[in-house]
Input
Amino acid sequence: MADEFPKPPQITPEAERIRRRRSMAIALALGALVVIFYAVSMVKTIR
Amino acid sequence: MSAAFDKAADQSLPASSVGGDVGDYFQLLKPRVMSLVIFTALVGIVVAPGTIHPVIAFASLLAIAVGAGASGALNMWWDADIDALMTRTAKRPIPDGRITPKEAFAFGMALSVGSVLVLGVVANWVAAGLLAFTIFFYAVVYSMWLKRSTAQNIVIGGAAGAFPPMIGEAVVTGNIGWAGFVLFTIIFLWTPPHFWALAMVKAKDYERAGVPMMPNVAGDASTRRQIMAYTIALALFALVPAAIGMGGAAYLAVAALGGLGMVGIAWRILKAPDLEASHKAGMQMFGFSILYLFAVFSALLAEHSLGVMWALPRLV
Output
């Protein structure tokens, strides 16, 4: 039964590098969004 | 069954199958256009009557920039077929096969919705509505409708590039006012001479792609006359900020000198004895017009942000 499950397809090191860079960029963008929303919330609250 | 799976697993997926690299997605945003949008929106924020907290201004500019980039991505998604036919655009991520059209569309739509929502929450919904309209105007009205159907494509479509200062003003005031309208008109009048100068040089490219740019439809002579007409209108209208108290003496000097330079190059295009001279003057116009717009908007930015405006008597 265990043999029925497919192995995930291998990707080339170049494809792996592209995928990692893209994940990092998405993480950074989301992090920046959190910081911006925090800063804007603080400014609006103080004002 | 298992053997088939093993066989599939043995085949390594190439880099192209996992989607584009970060740089490819960034290229989809048309970074050069985006930098112009950030700059003109910043001037709109600075000249607007009123004040705004720098954090709100920064976050708003970021949302406007992302919205502009999103419309660029949607434009590249729609125009991928003609981009592949032109030397200037053939290396863009979609025609070059680095990003699929589906990915570009999803990226553009996600950023469009995200940027409008963020601007609405951070600044106000008037500015967000204007940004949504700008994205719609560029992606649908210009890219999908006008670009392939009329030689007036960049005249009407140019409005999309002229909206950012109005959005900037709306970020501060929550309204659409005269300051934003004046800056809108300057960019609106600037667009035809800027793009037609390039279209004259790249006429064969546009012909091959079937895009009805003015030089291909109306001919070289008519385009030269229209470049002259729009340049004179631009040079004169760019003096308006000085007349209504929006710009001071420094602005007037920059706008007047820059306007003379623009008219001088337009005259050289108009009177060019042959195609080679006309193309040379066309490239001069393309480069100088960018410098002109930057200088005129920089003068306004400096006068308002540094508080160094030597006021002129108001005519209006």
Observations:
- Residues 275-305 of chain B form the longest helix (31 residues).
